[in-house]
Amino acid sequence: MARGYPDYEGDKQKVYLTPEWAALEAVDKTFIMSATVSGDSWDTLDSYLVPAGKTLYITSFAVASDKYGIHGAVRSNDGLGNIIPLGIAGGYVGGQLSYPKPLVITGGLTMETRVFNAHSANAVCHTCVQGYEL
After folding, report:
1. How far is residue 81's CA from residue 77's CA, in Å, rounded to a whole number?
2. pTM of the entire predicted model
3. I need a labelling partner for 19 at 20 to 30 A (CA). Which of 29, 47, 60, 134 fits?
4. Is residue 11 included in any domain, yes or no?
5. CA-CA distance, 93 to 63, in Å (whole number)?
């Protein structure tokens, strides 16, 4: 965890929540990905290997598409076939989840976002994961 106060912060009485402090210390993370996904199929849009000794805390996840019937999942993967589902969002053209208690992915594991295109035609799909890494 960062120590001290940012140079540009004049009020020493303020108490920061961890996500606010992470943004001030520039350890916040945003992963945005777009890709064309075939009809009636799953596809991995994004992956991020959390560095050893660090922990990724996910505070929100969103998925969207230009067609109806999109579902997205955020999960961790250890590369050995052990996959831990963390959250699913979806709906007519997308969905969003915010986590008051962040999802946690420890160092050495990979964060993945996947989407399911329930439409019969190809669709342009998007995912967005936000959080911070300490």
Report:
1. 7
2. 0.79
3. 47
4. no
5. 8
Q: Where are the beta strands (DSSP E) in 1-134?
A: 28-37, 41-49, 55-65, 70-77, 83-91, 94-106, 110-117, 123-133
Per-residue pLDDT of 36-89, as tens digits, reads 888 887 888 888 999 999 999 999 999 888 888 788 888 888 888 888 888 888
Cβ pair 72, 113 in contact under 8 A: yes
Domain assignment present for residue 78? The answer is yes
* One-letter amino acid for residue 103 of the chain: L
> Residue 45's domain is classified under what CATH number?
2.60.120.230
Question: Which tokens hold the place of 100?
Answer: 């008051």
Element spanning 23, H or E = helix 18-24
Residue 65 lies in a domain: yes
Total tally of structural domains belonging to the chain: 1
Query: Partners of 68 in the beta sheet?
Result: none
Residue 122 CA to residue 134 CA, distance in Å, equals: 38
- Within a domain: residue 59? yes
